[in-house]
Amino acid sequence: MNVNVDKDAVRAYKKKRRKNIRGVFKSLMIVFILATVSFLFLAPIVLTITNSFMQQSEIKANYGQVFATDSNGGKTYVSEQVNLKFIPEMVSFEQYKKVLFESSDYLQKFWISIILVVPIVVFQVLVAVCTAYGFYRYDGKLKHIIFFSYIILMLMPYQVTTVPNFLVAKGLGIVNTNWAIWLPGIFSPFSVYLITKFMRRIPYSLIEAAEIDGCNDFKIFSSVCYPLSKGCMASCAILIFIDYWNMVEQPVIMFSDESSYPLSVFLSRINEGEIGLAFAVATIYMFLPLFIFLYGESYLVEGISYQGGVKG
Amino acid sequence: MKIDLKKYRKKYTENGTAYTTNKKKNRKGVLVSWLFLSPSVIGVLTFFLVPFLIVIFYSLTQNPPVHYDFVGLDNYTSVVNNVAFHDAAVNTAIFSAIAVPLAVIIPLLLAMLLDTKIPFKSQFRSFFLTPLMVPVASVVLVWQVVFHYNGLANEIIQKFGVESIEWFDSEYAHLVILILFLWKNIGYNMILFIAALGSVPGELLEAASLERCGYWRMFFSIKFRYIVSTMVFVTIMSLINSFKVFREIYLLKGAHPTSYMYMLQTFMNNKFDSLDYNTLSSAAILMSLVMVVIIGILFFAENRLGKDIEE
To answer: Which residue, A195, B14, B49, B110, is most buried by CB atoms nearer than 10 A?
Structure first.
């Protein structure tokens, strides 16, 4: 029956509860901040999607003057309020119907995008896996130098790399063909870096075990290193895909003919009459990467996380 | 702890090279490994390294495709004195100098917020990462509407009693591209920081909190050491990505934007149109030199700051 101890206990309990309340309040604040930021992040995407369900007339009423073009092809400004609307007055699939069934132009550009991007993704990853294995086995000084030059190359911006790319394309006579974008894309060193970094984490004892079992190098590659790197390859593929799906520099430089531009460039060339269509096409165009994101988010996150720490 | 790790590492690499017992077999293995390397090495040589040497050669000569006159550094001086290049370089430098630190600090703060005990963590992470997936071309329409003279951005600042702004045709254009840049890149950098914060050993943090170490003290004395290398990486990546805002600018304003949005890539792009090899080559070489110097400095800083941490 010690009253003092009880008092102490009560005080400690009160302190703890105060701390708890403060902790709850704090995490509420954090959630609130994060929710606001994520709203800002998602709003443009949601707006694009909802606006694609508007009717042409509604879009014209809302944004008509934004996309009105003057005689020079620049945008003119008409003094009237522009209404940004989240929810269409009437949901309609009019725009999608037009894009998918009536005007073949946009679908064709979509197809150009796919033709340009898919080979780059597939072959860059395949080449990179082989290269990574080459770097991983029998590490030597020369290989270190080569790998380091790959890193430097990877860190060079497009301003620098497109100039040599263009010269070679010109020399090989492949300017204005898809090869001018495919080949530099396939040999771009990004995924080599990523997969090599990943492969170096494969414990050497695995390789030794395979050796003892009588595997040669090709067998070790095909039944140890390649299967283990599959996850990393998927991450790579997603990262390459989103970068090239969004390409602007390469087609603008390599193609002199605007009609062979992929959708990533062509979308901005809409004219006034087709803004509604443009929203629908924009939605279709971002649907594919968002779909991949939905199913491959863990790969994407892993892929990005592996990149940290350049020298690895 | 540090010494133990080092020992382990040494043993590990020794194991790696201990494999060189059978010399004959090893030589064959080396050959095979070069076979694996060859496609990529040949590709990189033909599409990047050899043409890069040609670019260096072009930058030192006049009228390259026709005849080759060696002119020393004349091309460089003419590029540096070119008004358009000068403006573009200044614009790009200013933009990168503002954008890159923000692209490091904001994601770090977000990652720190997500590192606490809160609900909906993975959802928030996905939300922040979504802009990375969306092609610029798809959202350019919305940006045009938002930053239109009669658009949402002006509507909001008018509520605070500020005059409307011509967002694209004034110095505020920098702010617009900055917002677009941050919108796209914050998620990517944040993931890198989350991974780095996750790699801090829990025992260290536990020990520190037993010693009644405060949150910020803990951050700067322990966590910071572990995220230095990531920070360097994020800085480099953001720098490279900050050059990619050309995409946004090109899609918003075409090949000839106002002088406020005139970036280096815009300059280069226009030189591609006129096939001005001399200017192109010397500009590319200048840029690559600047990049190498910046990256070198960052690597050096990483070595100094993170040297007491062994991975």
So the answer is: A195
Cβ of residue A263 closer than 8 Å to a chain B Cβ: yes
CATH code: domain of residue A155: 1.10.3720.10
- The boundaries of the domain holding residue A196 are 101-307
pTM of the model: 0.84
Q: Rounded to whole angstroms, how far apart are CA atoms A249 and B4? A: 48
Write out pLDDT tens, residues A64-84. Answer: 656 554 444 444 444 355 666
Query: Are residues B272 and A253, on separate chains, in Cβ contact within 8 Å?
Result: yes
- List of chain A residues whose C-beta atoms are within 8 Å of the C-beta of residue B159: none
| Residue of B15, B146, B233 lying closest to A204 (CB–CB) | B15
Of the candidates B90, B287, B109, B89, the one whose C-alpha atom is nearest the C-alpha of residue B182 is B109
**Length of chain B as a residue count:** 311
A273 lies in some domain:
yes
Task: Say how many domains are in chain A.
Answer: 2
pLDDT at A104 over 90: no
Question: Does the pLDDT at position B68 exceed 50?
Answer: yes
The CA distances from residue A17 to A3, A10, A21, A108, in Å, are 21, 10, 6, 64
Q: Are residues A135 and A275 in the same domain?
A: yes
Same domain, A136 and A25: no
pLDDT at residue B18, rounded to an integer: 41
pLDDT exceeds 60 at position B12 = no
Q: Average pLDDT for residues B23-46, to the nearest whole number?
A: 81
Instruction: Give A63's contacts in chain B (Cβ within 8 Å).
Output: 145
Query: pLDDT at residue A17 above 90?
Result: no
Domain-wise residue ranges, chain B = 23-48, 79-305
ipTM of the complex: 0.83
Buried b (16+ CB within 10 A) or exposed e, A198-212: bbeeeebeebeebbe
Query: Which chain A positions have a beta carbon within 8 Å of B310's beta carbon?
Result: none
Cα distances from B277 to residues A48, A147, A172, B51, B172, in angstroms, run 40, 29, 17, 13, 33
Question: Is the pLDDT at A120 greater than 90, yes or no?
Answer: yes
Confidence of residue A125 (pLDDT cuts 50, 70, 90): very high
Query: Please, is B218 exposed, middle or buried when counting C-beta atoms within 10 Å of its C-beta (0-12, 13-18, 19+)?
Result: middle
Instruction: For B302, name the nearest residue in chain A, comparing CA atoms only.
Output: A309
Tell me, what's the pLDDT at A118? 93
Chain A partners within 8 Å of B133 (Cβ): 242, 286, 289-290, 292-293
Q: What is the pLDDT of residue B227?
A: 84
Of A171, A242, A310, the CB nearest to B236: A310
Among B247, B252, B288, the residue with its CB nearest the CB of A156 is: B288
What does CATH list as the number for B79-305? 1.10.3720.10
Q: Are A147 and A252 members of one domain? A: yes
